[in-house]
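haha ok so turns out i had the wrong file open the whole time. this is the CORRECT one, sorry everyone. sequence first:
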Amino acid sequence: MRKLPLLLGGLLCMAGPVWASEGGMFVLDATDSPKAILAVIIFIVAYIAVMAEEVLHLRKSKPVIFAAGLIWVLVASVAQDMGRSDDEIHNAVSHNLLEYGALFLFLLVAMTFINAMEERHVFESLRSYLVHKGMSYRKLFWVTGWLAFFISPVADNLTTALLMGAVIMAVGGRDTRFVSLAMVNVVVGANAGGAFSPFGDITTLMVWASKKVQFEEFFALFIPSVLNFVTPALIMNFFLPNGVPSGHGGLVPIKRGGLRICALFLLTIATAVCFERFFHLPPFLGMMTGMSVLMFFAYFLRKTGTVEDDIQFDIFRRVARAEWDTLLFFFGVIFCVGGLATLGYLQMMSHGMYDNWGPTIANIVAGTISAVVDNIPVMFAIISMEPDMDVSQWLLITLTAGVGGSLLSIGSAAGVALMGQSKGSYTFLSHLKWSWAILIGYGVSIAAHLAINGT
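then structure:
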């Protein structure tokens, strides 16, 4: 994951308590208040703890949830000092809760489907198939990269990276140079693939859910996303070792119902789109409807199954295996950023970035920040700022926030996960060695978007 201190640098300068209404929630212009400054410090400290997750072995959700509680106590205290009513604070909290609740349910359904497919050995079957194909190092490099690019739009980049990482380690684990290059390629491919799909990343989902970009408009980012992946891949291609690695292990069949669960997931996504497009209902209702169908299908498997796996297939076990740390981290981020927004900091940032620099430069800078700062709070902060941008600019920040994390191995969940999976073959420094090539791809993708989609 990533962190956010740079987004807060230059915040502490406005004076005078003035209340404003923006986006359905009140904003207190109290950034010079000592309590407000303390809220910023608490947030920075919490994010330092998030950054140090791999060192502290402290799950990232814990510090941000704790910080969210403290920040809102300070927000309420500032409001009381100014004589504001309790109802206004309650409305502000409810506004953030509504934002979180809709995205929580959407993500919970997506994670449940992914876990159900994992339990049915859909991904393990693909991994074993690739291992046995007898591909050369170069072919395996491109196959895993392209699969990461096309799987991540429907599965999260973490699941995609772990799947491709397992293939790379199973086939080429003895060649450190190949593993390092292939995993850099997978990280870039997974992040780039998630950028052009509303379901490819939490940030793209946030942009779609906030109605900044329509569902079909995201696919205008397809060519820029391809260029973001292909450009560094072509450069790294010249440094791959020659030869054919030897695979091992048996082929793994997909369990009964696995392919039908894949089809149900695609239908669920289509249902969510239809709910939003034709009935103007929030997409999470379509996702929850799709999960109910998955529950019925799980019931069908148990009732008609003749083997132990089918009989014990329980959808609630799949729900329990959702990435709760990520879901709770998301809660902490939304309420931390929401509290700072209520104090007036996002208004200040919006003026400093989007009014002074212009949206294009601001969006490009925000994307590079996401190499160090988690893209979830970056995107939520920008959405909360409500900058005056057209669809092309919202697509630009969607692209840059999605692929900017590829610049460093710690810039995305995919990179962090693969560092742990590679047993020392893929590290922060081995990724940093190719950051210049990834930066070229970053620039090419931005240029392509500006040329194709305009501003």
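The first strand starts at residue 19 and ends at 22.
again sry for the mixup
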